Amino acid sequence: MEPGTMNSIVARFRGGSLSARALRSTMFTVGGFGTSQVIRLASNLILTRLLFPEAFGMMALTMVFMQGLQMFSDVGVAPAIQQSKRGDDPEFLNTAWTIQVIRGVCLWLAACALAWPVSQVYGEPMLLLLMPVMGLTLVIQGFNPTKMETANRHLMLGRVTALDIVTQLAGIITAVLFAWMFHSVWALVMSGLVSSLVQFWVNTAFLPGPRNRFRWEKQAAHELINFGKWIFLSTLVGFLYHQGDKLILGRFLDIDVFGVYNIGFFLASFPLLLGLMILRKLLIPIYRETPPKESAENYAKLRKMRLLVSVALMGLQAFFALTGVFLVELLYDPRYEMAGAVAVMIAIAQLPVIVGLTYDQAAVAAGDSRDFFVLQSARAVLMVAGLATGVMLGGLLGALIGQGIAMILAYPVVVWLARRAGAWDPLHDVVFAGVAVLIALAAFAVNGQEILTLGASVMR
User: Fold this and answer.
1) HEC sequence for 156-225
2) What is the pTM of this model?
3) Residues 85-103 pLDDT 10s
4) Among the three residues 208, 236, 264, which one is the final residue of a domain in this structure?
5) What angle do CA 271, 417, 312 make, to 5 degrees?
6) Are residues 281 and 193 in the same domain?
7) Of 179, 211, 236, at which residue does a domain stop?
8) What gap in Å lies between CA 256 and CA 126, rounded to an integer?
């Protein structure tokens, strides 16, 4: 490579401009996420040999309700800090932190209250103990410093990424150690508790900025609550959108089959999780600083960014759609064989989401959380309807097909939001929709026989 070319590349990563910060943040986000997923995969391979499929099914059910409690009570503290003009004001940040702490304690009380009815509905008595203990992680996370969000706000993600990896390693080492010693689902519970404690400690100790203190400023609280009311509703329906498959399939599938389903989901969801992380950490600041409605230059910058993100995510999605069965056969023992076909179908079902993924946060960045709520509501209703109809008509295979159809039907609402924010790029969508169709056809051609076996999965 020519010295001039190398110097030009290095120069693009330096400085305080939005593009330089975005490039550095993208590098840290993608690098950190890739490292995180490699660590998760390694631990997953170890744990599947130390534990039984039922343990993963039990933990998946527990985590559905933990995440549900978090989402049902999300008042939008993180996006409020990222988009507010007062996002660096100590009074605003301390008020946000106070709200967050109170919420964490309330969530733990709710987890204790829900433990008995949930254990009865799903016929799993162990949930009576698992939910209150796992609920302690919600209390710990409530004390996490707002410095984590201000670092994201300013696209300074190098140290945040390093601390996230330290947190993850602590949880994984705990899980493997306890699984080796006790061969019990409690290994996964202890992992969650330890990683929450480590996350709180390292971010408090090693991120720059003052420590949070209890504070209630009326003006800050009003802004947080006013912005957060639509985020609250968005995350409430977002729970059904993101966790509806586990809520419904956990009721219909045997617990061991449900555990295998979650292994397949873990593999296939890599591209979408990466995309969502990029959205959360990068797109809100980028949309905030370069609104696409403001100028043709801003629109062109966002279009270029959208193209790069979509190419990368669609390529990753194609990889898992084509190789899901092969990867599971290579990496896991025969008890998890069905997870390969699950991974392929989930990768196919998520293709429509990837096409419109970069539009999601445009409204939130502009302070319009109501439009985002409308989008999440449409997705949730369609997802639940698709899953419920599919599982009743065609079992696990029908449910996975229902997911894909639901995401296609949600696309007009994505376009509506994107147009209101001035971000819609129809040429981008047409091109990548065509790519998605080709990927789906290729995946069926390669893995068709294995996909058909999902129709015979065991139902309760």
Assistant:
1) CCHHHHHHHHHHHHHHHHHHHHHHHHHCCCHHHHHHHHHHHHHHHHHHHHHCCCCCCCCCCCHHHHHHHH
2) 0.69
3) 776 788 888 988 898 899 8
4) 236
5) 20
6) no
7) 236
8) 15
